[in-house]
Design a protein that fits this description.
Catalyzes quinol oxidation with the concomitant reduction of oxygen to water. Its cofactor is Cu cation; ferriheme a. This is Quinol oxidase subunit 1. It is a multi-pass membrane protein. With 649 residues, the chain is mostly helical. It is 68% helix and 1% strand. It has a two-stranded antiparallel ribbon. It is globular, with a radius of gyration of 25 Å. The N and C termini lie far apart (63 Å). The mean pLDDT is 91.
């Protein structure tokens, strides 16, 4: 392979990206060396098995990916802002919309959700950690290895270019001979294995580690949503793993599972992808519903209306999510009967979703509403998501979908579901639980400025796409003539995209500003909230709870405050906690290099790093690591210090 085939060349933006990668890659080790932080980084973060720190790392990675995917989005909007634009050529545009979709779904939304899950779930159920702390660290480093491997494709080898769904035969070696779709297959496999491990870990954690007295029907709604989500993960992600393995075999070993000849079947890929892909939408939506439920009940000062119906509706959504995937194929030659069956199941999923909308509205009714930043996102979500849901029912009608399917109308619907349904939710959850982890709130004024920019600009960006779609503008159209009349609405959409950029910049600036200037005045429960995570200190000590709380009803923390009855009793005892370990980060690095060499079919170094991966597994098998105990004296010192700091502030 020649150097100009290995490195992507020819465009100023690519050279700028390469330069920035080199600068950052040099700046980080120089800064760590100058400030003597290598040991701190290794001890406190790279080797940690603390669920809270792992959650923070997931969220930081998600924010990084938000801006990476956001740059792709801006480039797409800039390219289509005016007719006959030459900013990007067709190939570059294909690569950008492919990477935008993959990054935003799998490397932004998923890790943000999993990060909040890591931070909150053990605290909400009164546990001291997840069931398998070491496995939790492995999950993060596999996700991170997959994300980094996918992201280097745009400067080394070339990005995937067959769309985020990578349909065959377009993604085959015949039509996509570069290594871009090898990156897709390998990176998503590595990250997907990490997500599957997370699903298993949190299922066991929620089912086996709840506080005494916390039955399933006394769990907070966010915990319920995560439980159901992880059931979906455990059933859906093995399908993706198998599909990607077959894709790898087709592209790199000459098999023809998805070929159009010799017994292959290109529609097999489409079916496998969407058998995973449509449940994946609910993997990122259901936890968002749980986040909104927590926030709306907390800031309406009311218990969640219709708790049981919320649980039933989420279970119904999880079941229906596996029987709607064929609505992606209405226009691909299925008969009337198949289309009708899946049209009915697709419309049926709107019923439990609608139930939840009414639950939230009735929770708000007669509530003493506090218009905090998290609540603003929750309130904006309801009408905007409803537009996404109604247009989804339009798309569910098979006959109508023949007109809508390949147009910008579908793109607008998709974003009207996922941005208010997931992005608004994770930002709201980020603001809501931030003081739990760090001991201070994000600035409310800056938070609301960011909210208004994001909420208004979102509609300015995506509502014009509904009209463009109805006027006939197709998806993936990278250029168009002035005679189409698409220019004005596309330019309006570009203005909205710039507004979204401003909103997200304010959000990041808010983190910096709050770290420097926000008062450290929290008492562990700055929002006067309802669930168990607010009953411990902020920031949370390593062991979460010095004494495990006992739960006798839903919203036990709320009633404990109102009735003056403590949730804990008894004396301190030594607490067993897991030790940090460098094995997960080493395994993640080995997976990264194994994946990189697999992408280029460099078999010998790939085998070497495959052996390293097996070596880390063998090391763990024979390792004698029984964790450590936190003594009663240390617990008392920690508790007194936390109470003293809070009293002093």
């Amino acid at each position: 392979m020649k150097w100009d085939e290995f490195f992507v060349t020819g465009e100023p933006m690519i050279y700028a990206a390469m330069a920035s990668i080199v600068v950052v890659s040099l700046a980080i080790p120089i800064a760590l060396t100058y400030f003597k932080k290598w040991n701190w980084l290794w001890t406190n973060w790279l080797t940690t098995v603390d669920h809270k720190k792992i959650g923070v790392m997931y969220i930081l990675a998600a924010l990084l990916m938000l801006f990476r995917g956001g740059v792709d989005a801006l480039l797409m909007r800039a390219q289509t802002a005016i007719p006959d634009n030459g900013l990007l050529d067709g190939q570059h545009y294909n690569e950008i919309f492919t990477t935008h979709g993959v990054i935003m779904i799998l490397f932004m939304a998923m890790p943000f959700i999993i990060g909040l899950m890591n931070v909150v779930i053990p605290l909400q159920i009164g546990a001291r950690d997840v069931a398998f702390p070491r496995l939790n660290a492995v999950s993060f480093w596999l996700f991170f290895a997959g994300a980094m491997l996918f992201n280097i494709s745009f400067v080394i080898g070339g990005s995937p270019d067959a769309g985020w769904s990578a349909y065959f035969p377009l993604a085959s070696l015949e039509f996509s001979p570069t290594v871009g779709n090898n990156y897709y297959a390998i990176a998503l496999q590595i990250a997907g294995i990490g997500t599957l491990l997370t699903g298993i870990n949190f299922l066991v954690t929620i089912l086996k580690m709840r506080a005494p007295g916390m039955t399933l029907m006394k769990m907070p709604m966010f915990t319920w949503s995560v439980l159901i989500t992880n059931v979906i993960i455990v059933f859906a992600f093995p399908v993706l793993t198998v599909a990607l393995a077959l894709m790898t075999l087709d592209r790199q070993f000459g098999t023809q599972f998805f070929a159009m000849q010799n017994g292959g079947m290109d529609m097999l890929w489409a079916n496998l992808f969407w058998v995973w892909g449509h449940p994946e939408v609910y993997i990122v939506i259901l936890p968002a519903f749980g986040i909104y439920s927590e926030i709306i009940s907390a800031f309406a000062r009311k218990n969640l209306y219709g708790y049981k119906s919320m649980v039933v509706s989420m279970v119904a959504i999880s079941l229906l999510s596996f029987v709607v995937w064929v609505h992606h194929f209405y226009t691909m030659g299925h008969g009337v009967m198949v289309n009708s069956v899946f049209s009915i199941t697709t419309m049926a999923i709107a019923i439990p979703t609608g139930v939840k909308i009414f639950n939230w509205l009735f929770t708000l009714r007669k509530g003493k509403i506090s218009f905090t930043t998290p609540m603003m996102y929750a309130l904006a979500f309801i009408p905007i998501f409803t537009i996404g849901g109604v247009t989804g029912v339009m798309l569910a009608m098979a006959s109508a979908d023949y007109q809508y399917h390949n147009t910008m109308f579908l793109v607008a619907h998709f974003h009207y579901v996922l941005i208010p349904g997931t992005v608004f939710a994770v930002i709201a959850g980020f603001h809501f639980w931030f003081p739990k982890v760090f001991g201070f709130r994000l600035n409310e004024r800056l938070g609301k400025w960011a909210f208004w920019f994001i909420a208004v600009s979102f509609n300015v960006t995506f509502f014009p796409l509904f009209i463009l779609g109805l006027n006939g503008m197709t998806r993936r159209m990278y250029t168009y003539s002035e005679s189409t009349g698409y220019g004005a609405l596309n330019m309006l959409s570009m203005v909205g995209a710039l507004g979204l950029t401003v909103g997200f910049i304010i959000l990041v600036y808010n983190i910096y500003y709050s770290v420097r200037y926000s008062p450290r005045d929290t008492n562990g429960d700055p929002w006067d909230a309802r669930s168990l995570e607010w009953s411990t200190h902020s920031p949370v000590p390593e062991y979460n709870f010095a004494l495990i709380p006992t739960v006798d009803r839903l919203d036990a923390h709320w009633f404990s405050k109102k009735e003056g009855k403590p949730l804990t009793s008894g004396k301190y005892e030594p607490i067993h906690m897991p030790n940090n370990s460098g094995v997960p980060v080493i395994m993640g690095a080995a997976f990264f290099f194994w994946g990189f060499f697999m992408v280029f079919s460099w078999w010998i170094p790939a085998i070497v790093f495959g052996v390293v991966i097996l070596g880390t597994l063998a090391y763990r098998t024979f390792e004698k690591d029984h964790g450590h105990y936190i003594s009663v004296e240390e617990i008392e010192r920690t508790e007194n210090a936390l109470r003293g700091e809070q009293h002093e502030n």
